[in-house]
Amino acid sequence: MRECVIIGRPNSGKTMFALNFAGYLGAKNVDITFRTYDGLTTCRHFSLAEAKRELCGMTLHKTRFLQSIVLNMAVGKTAVNFKLTDTCGVSEQIHNDEEIRKGMAQTIGLLRSADFIIHIIDLSLVNKDFISSKISIDHEFYNYGVVRNAYVLLGNKFDLVSAKDNLPRLAAAFPKAHVIPVSALYCRGFKEVKACVARNI
Length: 201
Ligand SMILES: Nc1nc2c(ncn2[C@@H]2O[C@H](COP(=O)(O)OP(=O)(O)OP(=O)(O)O)[C@@H](O)[C@H]2O)c(=O)[nH]1
Ligand SMILES: [Mg+2]
Known about the structure:
The chain is α/β, with parallel strands linked by helices. It has helices spanning 14-24, 48-55, 98-113, 128-132, 137-148, 161-164, 167-173, 190-198, and strands spanning 2-8, 29-35, 41-47, 66-75, 78-86, 116-122, 151-156, 179-181.
C-alpha cells in the first residue's frame, strides 16, 4: 500500500488536514495507528469529531509521533487503499524535550520511504521575513520534495483574512512546487488535493 506523508511546522494544520481529508473521502470514523520512535504501535478507533477534539490543538507539538489512517479512494474504476500519515511537526531549533526531538527525527526518517509528500504551510505566517529567509525548514522540505517529484505544497488556513494576500508570496518563494490553497478547517481546496493524491497512489 502506498503511503502519503503530511509534513510541516508545528501548528500548521497537519492533523486537522488528515482528519478532515479522511472525512472528505467519506470516512465517518477512523482507526488511527500510532507508531512511536521506539517502534511501539497502538491503534485506536475514533469518531472524526472525537479525533479532532483530542488530537488537534493550538499547543505546539500536539502530535509527537506517526499517526496513520488507511483510506480508500476511487481512482478511475478502481478503489485504491492508501495510508495517510500525520507526523510530528519539524522546526529548525533543537528542541529541549527528547520525545519531540525523536518525533522530528521520525518524521524526517519517514520522508525517504514515503511515496507522496504533502507539505503544509500556515499561509497566515508567510510574511516578508519568511520570503527573505532561504534556509528555513520549509525550504529544506521543498528542496527535497521537488527532487523527489512526488510532492505538493498546501497553503493552509486560507480562510483567515491574514492568509489571503500571502498566496502569491508563497508561490513566488517556492516556484517549482504545485501550490494549492486550502482550509483544512473548512475542507476547502480538497477537490484539487484529492486529484493530486489520486495521481500518486
Ligand atoms: N483558521 C484555521 N485554523 C486552522 C486550520 N487548520 C488548522 N487550524 C487550527 O490550527 C491549530 C493547529 O492545528 P493542528 O491540525 O493541530 O496542527 P498540527 O500541524 O497538527 O500541529 P502539531 O501537531 O502541533 O505539529 C488548531 O487550533 C486548528 O484548529 C485552517 O484551515 N484554518
Ligand atoms: Mg498535529
